[in-house]
Amino acid sequence: MSRPRVVHLTGDFPDPVDFFKTRVIERFLDLTSASFDHSVFSINRISPSSRELARQLIFGGTCDIRTVPFAYGTALTYQAPAKGVLHKTRLLQLGRWWAQHIVELSLKPDLLVGHKLTLEGIAVYEAAKLLDIPFALTIQSHTDDKILRARPDLESLFAKIYHSASQVIVFSPIAQIKIEKRLGKRREPAHIIPCPTDLDAPLRPNPSGSSLVSVFHLKNQRIKNLKGMLEGLHIANKCGAGLTLNVVGGGEEKDFDACRSLAKFNPNAKLEGPLDRYGVQKRMNEAIAFIMPSLGESFGLVFIEALFAGLPIIYPKEQAIDGYFDNHDFAIPVDPRDSKEIAQAMIYVRKNETALKNALSQWQKSDQAKLFARPSISEAYCNAMNAAVACEF
Description:
Blueprint lengths: L4 E6 L13 H8 L5 E10 L3 H10 L6 E5 L2 E7 L7 H18 L6 E4 L5 H12 L3 E5 L1 H10 L4 H10 L2 E4 L2 H11 L7 E2 L19 E4 L10 H13 L6 E4 L4 H11 L5 E5 L3 H9 L3 E3 L9 H8 L4 E4 L14 E4 L4 H13 L1 H12 L2 H4 L3 H17 L3
Parallel strand pairs: 1-2, 1-5, 2-4, 5-6, 6-7, 7-8, 9-10, 9-12, 10-11, 12-13, 13-14
Antiparallel strand pairs: 3-4
Helix pairs in contact: 3-4, 5-7, 8-12
């Protein structure tokens, strides 16, 4: 029996245009490649020049699509202004081009998938109508929530797309709560499926950690809220916590300079530089707790990696993994804009390290922990895709 053909449109996939994009969608596809014939259109937006933008605003124009084949399918660039100018227009044009291109390639998909409602979703919705086939959506909380708040004029379109999708996948409970607060509940409930990681073999928690640890690429220090962590650390140590914060992550020299500048008055903060994947896991296991109170986070796979590495976590409230660990003391949500609350969480994990790690050790052996491991994620994703293929558009 032939595998259903699923064609994906995503801006979050490593490709020849930008190899350093997140690998989350790639992992979903790799995990389920035995069950589905996946093909990817990996999109990259480029901005027109000021002169070209002025011409397009006056006389109109298209999104000027260019393609490059790669192992998973096709990488493409499309031309659209920044800051949401011509947002709907350009994505509808992309959807029409995509539908025509799919026909020209004789792909004959059983399902289209858009990996964000407010971006790829517009193009996928248009293409699915033209091809008369079902489509599914992945909701990426931070980006989708940000665009929904910025574009109330498009809310009716987003609602139509959301409720027309044959199936919807969200990475966390908070993502579903946020989207449905604006667009209403679907008749068919969304599939809540966490992101997969290769670091899903649990390490026994180390009962006596050496420091707090955070892990991110240093170019992202603003969105990962290094400033808030440093302010929290300063407050916690004024209260006698005696904590250090070690930041693991690489970057260009300008990124290190920016982080050093933020940390120059805090001798208890250290930049450790980059580590490989398994080096990160080992370094986490040596710490007291993991902290990353991001200002914007769609899922935050590193929080799950920290739990499997044996670390309690401090994460941003109403973002990321919020909703998965409501009844577990080893996962502490904080308001990322409240440095006093961040400090209180730091002090809490310091004082309660042994108890928190004992509870985490029990969780690592639980059925809930298995939901974050690749076999369970693969099964859940296959179920969602099969349900989507079976729907009539």
